[in-house]
Amino acid sequence: MTLAIAMVNVSALRQNVGRTAIAAATVAIVFLWSGASASPIANNATPGVVVAHSPAKTAIYLGSPAIAILDDGTYVITHDTFGPNSSLDTTEVYRSHDRGRSWAKLADVKGQYFSSVFVHRGALYLIGTSRLEGAVVIRRSLDDGKTWSVPTDANSGVLASDGKYFSAATPTVTAGRRLWKSMETINGGVAAGLISADVNSDLCKAGSWTFTAALRPDSQWLDGKFKGWLEGNAVVTPKGKVVDVLRVYYDFQPEQAAIVTVDEDERHLAFDPKTGFVAMPGAGKKFTIRFDPSSGLYWSLTNAVLPGSYHGNNFERARNTLALISSSDLHHWDVRRVVLHADNSDTHGYQYVDWVFDGSDIAAAIRTASDDDEGGAHSQHDSNFVTFLRVSNFAHP
Fold first, then answer.
1. In sequence order, which ranges of the chain are alpha helices (DSSP H)?
2. Is the pLDDT of residue 76 over 80?
3. What is the number of other CB atoms lying within 10 angstroms of the CB of residue 236?
4. CA 263 → CA 172, 173, 192, 237, 241, distances in Å?
5. Which residues contact 136 (CB under 8 A, 6 or more apart)?
6. What is the mean pLDDT of residues 309-337?
7. Could you report the per-residue pLDDT of 336-377, keeping only the tens digit for each?
8. Rounded CA separation 231/247 (Å)
């Protein structure tokens, strides 16, 4: 699969879609509890709590997991599907009332894809695209995810319908009086972008949102080895400024992230290739960055390539190790511990992790490729599970 390459057909991004999708998934829910804490593994067991399962034979794979914790402590996980038999336009919603020990499916949300889930002013929101290469849409739920508003026009959740958009389950953050979220555009490749809205505005009205101008990359960056960026994180810097920290497709070590800045008018982005690329373990795969005020550090769970953890030569597909990393400034990152590891990197992956702080723990939703009773995953990329994992006492292992 070709990933976010600035000069390629982006219809194949993350999807490996070779023909028209023909059916939506019917995903089985499995209830499993394997303990409260994460720990490294060196076998082929599926770690954590299984939220959703789709056998490889269905050719429907599980992607874009996102997680939020409601004000009453309820956990919500959402995900979409990809693969030859996916409809490429539906998000599934699950809920847990026991801090992730068991999960129940709540809804199938048609016309919602590549989405983040977040809580704002007592309501639950899904924001992403309407489908692969679709419009920008947002939905609101007032019953904890069971039912959702339907975007039909600019006054009900269609935030942009011109062009093609690309997104991921990355954070919605507050800076000053505005909410910020990354939202890439597709025009011969993936261009970086951010959207923002006043915290007191009606988030389901297009007029509430401001879109930055799209920023296209240059294939000559990184000595001509740069192949694209995507799946950015809106992050508030130590100085209170918003930046977009993007995954970079650069198949060398150390892996690189790109830090794109926002101009004072909050409508334009800028990138300096001399200073904007930063070495970040696992930055060649999708990641979520969040800031923890207690530790004063930024944290992420990434597919870092560590000594002895991967023996192949395609670092973008090195997804068999999940590491907890941290930084004080977004420019210098340290691996704090290995959370998960499987020796088999061909059919095992713990990837596309979205997560939130839960007191001294991290609560994570993971796109997981692992063994099952039906032959296991098609590949490390073509995940057959969405799982929940708790990383206990993350700042002090």
1. 221-224
2. yes
3. 17
4. 19, 17, 14, 14, 10
5. 127, 128, 129, 130, 158, 159, 160, 161, 165, 167, 183, 195
6. 97
7. 999 999 999 999 999 999 999 999 999 999 999 999 999 999
8. 6
Longest dimension (CA), the chain: 55
- What is the arithmetic mean of pLDDT over 110-116? 98
Q: How would you class 61 by CB atoms within 10 Å of its CB: exposed for 0-12, middle for 13-18, buried for 19 or more?
A: buried
Q: Alpha-carbon distance 46 to 371, whole Å?
A: 7
pLDDT of residue 269: 98
Residue 248 CB-density burial (10 A; 0-12 exposed, 13-18 middle, 19+ buried) = buried
Q: Please, are residues 148 and 98 in contact by the beta-carbon 8 Å criterion?
A: no
Instruction: Give the DSSP letter of residue 207.
Output: G
Rounded distance, CA 205 to CA 138, Å? 9
236 pLDDT exceeds 80? Answer: yes
Query: What is the dotted CATH code of the domain comprising 10-352?
Result: 2.120.10.10
Instruction: Please give the backbone phi and psi of residue 318, each rounded to the nearest 5 degrees, phi first.
Output: -85, 90
Q: What is the DSSP string of 247-279?
A: EE---SSS-EEEEEEE-TTSS-EE--TTTSEEE
Residue with tokens 């060398």: 252
Confidence band for 285, pLDDT divided at 50, 70 and 90: very high
CA dist., res. 114 & res. 166, Å (int): 7
**254 upstream amide cis, omega within 30 of 0:** yes
Average pLDDT of the residues in 254-264 = 96
CA distances from 114 to 15, 22, 130, 135 (A): 11, 19, 8, 11
Partners of 300 in beta bridges: 289, 325
Sign of CA pseudo-dihedral 174, 248, 256, 82: positive
Task: Tell me which DSSP letter residue 181 carries.
Answer: E
CA distance 317 to 57: 21
Question: Tokens 């555009």 sit at which residue?
Answer: 185
Question: For 312-336, what is the mean pLDDT?
Answer: 98
pLDDT surpasses 60 at 38: no
Residues 47, 60: Cα–Cα separation, whole Å: 21
